[in-house]
Amino acid sequence: MSAVSFRAVCRHFGAVRAVDGVDLDIADGEFFAMLGPSGSGKTTCLRLIAGFEQPSSGTISIYGAAAEGIPPYRRNVNTVFQNYALFPHMNVRDNVAFGLRVKGVGKAERHAQAERALALVELSGYGERRAGELSGGQRQRVALARALVNKPKVLLLDEPLGALDLKLREQMQEELKRLQRALGLTFVFVTHDQEEALSMADRIAVFAEGRIQQVGTPEEIYRRPASRFVADFVGSSNVIPAEYAGTGPDGHWASLRPEDIRLDPAGRPATVTARAYHGRVVKLGLNLGGQELTALVPPGDLPEPGEVTRISWDLAKVHVMGPQA
Ligand code: ATP
Prior knowledge:
This protein has helices at 42-50, 92-102, 107-120, 136-148, 166-183, 194-200, 218-223, 228-233, 242-245; strands at residues 2-13, 16-27, 31-35, 57-62, 65-66, 77-80, 154-158, 186-191, 203-208, 211-216, 238-241, 252-256, 262-278, 281-288, 291-297, 308-312, 319-323. It is an alpha+beta fold. The strands form four sheets. A six-stranded mixed beta sheet has the order 6-7-8-3-9-10, sandwiched between helices. The protein starts with a strand and ends with a strand. Adenosine-5'-triphosphate (ATP) binds at residues 13, 16, 18, 36, 38-44, 192.
């Protein structure tokens, strides 16, 4: 049975079609990412699952039960918000135990449960600290503990790492993944960061303009994008006419990943238009007979902008998509 199902779900705000006919099945225990540009409807989908929004049409079910008419606190889901929404003057333990207090759980029991949740996020011993005195990463963990303490079956995470710097973000990505596996929970994770989605999720739904463009494993989404939009949005692929790519029917689009283009003395001549170091790789702008391409190549003795170099790629790496509109 699916953890979450959407059938033809729409949520319109006046003329804005925030969610516009979404069908979706999220499996029990899955780490599911909703990926898309700003305004594509990801957060609205999450709020529909949480029960903070109601569909304009269509149906949602959670573990087989119709969600219609069920208020947020009676759904087996909890949300971790991007801004954490902690009470700064309350201590960490009371922040975590807040939901239990509202439910009328006694003090000793809610403190014990809060301590267990804090241990899960490796914040044992922080219970007495005021939430306002924590670092960003620690606040993020408290927000997570506060959701976990309610023992939800589905955890909804809305850009939970958005406020963290890169290093902490990468560390928390690993921890979230570890927690999700260890607890066997279903995670629904909203992000506009494609690398985050690719590295963490079991499956990804790519959103644009309120609709799902493609659902698949990170590998499927990356290697076999269903549309030009997906190819462009996930991994900034080169989307080029198939005739340029050297394979596929004329008039179709083909996607060629920047890391699959290599410098090759036996390849086709291309003018270097730009060069930028990105640590482990160098990004080259190339002009191949009028077609602009981006390549990611290992650092080393590389051609300068303005110079002509030679490039090639394996035809097996080219993914041919639909006809050009
Ligand atoms: P972001 O990554 O910026 O959070 P998103 O993909 O999560 O974007 P949503 O927040 O779901 O996008 O918004 C989708 C569209 O619906 C946007 O055009 C937004 O302005 C609109 N929208 C969302 N909530 C409301 C609301 N309560 N009233 C009116 N319009 C809304």
